Amino acid sequence: MTPERETPNRERASSGSRERTPAGATATSRPRARLDQPRPPRRRLLPEWDPEAFGRLSERIARFLGTGRFIVWMTVVIIAWVLWNVFAPRDLRFDNYPFIFLTLMLSLQASYAAPLILLAQNRQDDRDRVNLEQDRKQNERSIADTEYLTREIASLRIGLGEVATRDWIRSELQDLMKELEARQHDGHVVFPAERPHGRDVDDH
């Protein structure tokens, strides 16, 4: 009786263990991101652009705005605008006095020109900062090279101070000649050619 009662309990325990869901990190069914592949690009609501190309364009516009050509062309356009809207037939006028549309266009131009000029100035400041950093490093290298050459020249001077120069050798030879002449006056001087050789040296 006992074995028959234990078998269904075992079956229930085994079926219960099978029906249990694993806990922890394995419980989630989300796909893992593969590390050997780049992530897919995210969708952006704003349009994408090249900052470098946009910066170059802003510099060109700012450079053009700071020339006399732009002032001349803007003056010509404003004068033509005003003359056309004053002397043209009423049906062909598109901006009557007090030229509200012209004021709007000039305000729009100023509102776009100011950020473009600031962007160009920021790019120029970045370039100046990089150039200053490179100049500073170049100056540091130049100072280090100058100090190294100064130490080498000082060591060469110290070394040359210990080397026998032509004047020093001449003075030493003159002193030696004077000493030999003084010894000749005092008595017989034995020169290296008059010294005995061979057996005479042994007998002596």
Key phrases:
about 200 residues; mainly alpha; about 0% strand; elongated; disordered C terminus
How would you describe the overall organization of this protein?
By secondary structure, this protein is mainly α. The protein is built from six helices and no strands. The chain has helices at 2-19, 51-65, 68-87, 100-161, 166-186, 199-203. Helix 2 packs across helix 4. The longest helix has 62 residues, at 100-161. The relative contact order is 0.04.
Number of strands: 0
Q: Shape from CA axes?
A: elongated
**SSE sequence, one letter per element:** HHHHHH
Mean pLDDT: 76
Largest sheet: none
The Cα radius of gyration reads 51 Å
Structural class category? mainly alpha
> Unreliable runs, pLDDT <50, ≥5 residues?
1-22, 190-195, 197-204
Q: Termini separation (Å)? A: 138 Å
The amount of helix comes to: 55-70%
Work out the helix count: 6
* Strand fraction: under 5%
Topology of this structure?
Blueprint: H1 2-19, H2 51-65, H3 68-87, H4 100-161, H5 166-186, H6 199-203
Helix pairs in contact: 2-4
In short:
With 204 residues, the chain is mainly alpha-helical. It is built from six helices and no strands.
